[in-house]
Design a protein that fits this description.
The protein is globular, with a radius of gyration of 20 Å. It is 46% helix and 15% strand. The protein starts with a helix and ends with a helix. With 306 residues, the protein is α/β, with parallel strands linked by helices. Helix 1 runs antiparallel to helix 3 and helix 10 packs across helix 12. Strand 6 and strand 7 form a beta hairpin. The protein has 2 domains: 184 residues, 3-Layer(aba) Sandwich (Rossmann fold), CATH 3.40.50.300; 94 residues, Helicase, Ruva Protein, domain 3, CATH 1.10.8.80. It contains 14 helices and 9 strands. The strands form 3 sheets. A 5-stranded parallel sheet has the order 2-5-8-1-9.
């Protein structure tokens, strides 16, 4: 593995204790040029993980706290009329979306209209305001956090927006030894301030180029296609995986292979990232409350490796 990537993981593990898999998946998502959704109860480190990744990767960071009264202009920016001598003109003031890494905190507490303001930015990496299209910085990542839908004051994300996230992960409670260390340690914010960036935006983009060059054999593509066909034809799911989901599986598998110091993606790479890539894209055909982990396990058992 790239020594800088290993240092990124080591530094992040100093801040988020006992959650190596979640950190690795989050970094994998960013290397694959995707966007990440973190869904969990408050207080388990969702926001801290986003801060940590921005810090160790040396990225410009903005946090947007989503609330019920947040407006699209609060995210994208607004044009303000400014008087200059005898003349005046409208000047666009950029919103917090203009950053390398944007944390959309508690995204499902905002109204659907405001949530949709993220759609063009996430998909096209640009925004349109007053008829003018403005490109976003490169690299550009959105990490969104959301509370469980049963909690008060939440608006479920529509399927079209969920599909824009390459991965959805959970952090969960830390193991007992990690939580004991957390209770006896300094505040994570104080430790985070002392962490030095391991990379910068340019180096990160170079690693992303390496991800694109990871080899995917014909057999691996057949395996991904078999998974997709099973979701469409088995009758176990209300709707099958889309072509975008298939591309997400391939890109995430390539990034996971790079993190494991391989030049070729293998079936175990697909299996490692599959739950995070598909668990927010699938619904069971019987419309019961979905156990996303069970759905991913069912897929892995049902589809044989070519």
């Amino acid at each position: 593995m790239n020594s800088s990537l290993q240092e990124v993981l080591d530094q992040a593990n100093q801040i988020i204790l006992g959650k190596e898999k979640a950190i690795r998946l989050a970094l994998c998502c960013l290397l694959a040029r995707g966007h990440l959704l973190i869904e969990d109860i408050p207080g388990v480190g969702k926001t801290t993980l986003a801060h940590t990744l921005a810090r160790v990767l040396g990225l410009e960071f903005q946090r947007i706290q989503f609330t019920s009264d947040l407006l699209p202009g609060d995210i994208l920016g607004v044009s303000v009329y400014e008087q200059q001598g005898q003349q005046g003109r409208f000047v666009f003031h950029q919103g917090p979306i203009f950053a390398h890494l944007v944390l959309a905190d508690e995204v499902n507490r905002a109204s659907p209209k405001t949530q949709s303001a993220l759609l063009e930015a996430m998909e096209e990496r640009q925004i349109t305001s007053d008829g003018v299209t403005r490109p976003l910085p490169d690299p550009f990542f959105v990490i969104a956090t959301q509370n469980p839908q049963y909690q008060i004051g939440t608006f479920p994300l529509p399927e079209s927006q969920l599909d824009r996230f390459l991965m959805r992960i959970e952090i969960g409670y830390p193991p007992e030894d990690a939580e004991r260390a957390l209770l006896g340690a300094r505040a994570r914010r104080d430790v985070l301030k002392e962490i030095q960036p391991c990379m910068n935006a340019g180096q990160l983009m170079a690693v992303q180029k390496q991800v694109e060059n990871i080899t995917c054999s014909s057999a691996l593509l057949d395996y991904i296609l078999a998974i997709i066909r099973h979701t469409r034809e088995s009758g176990h799911f209300s709707e099958g995986l889309s072509p975008r989901a298939g591309l997400a599986l391939r890109h995430a598998a390539q990034a996971w292979a790079l993190l494991n110091d391989r030049s070729m993606a293998l079936p175990e790479d697909v299996q490692a990232i599959l739950p995070a890539v598909v668990n927010h894209r699938l619904q069971p055909a019987d419309h019961d409350s979905p156990d996303t982990h069970a759905m991913a396990d069912q897929l892995l058992r049902a589809v044989a490796i070519p």
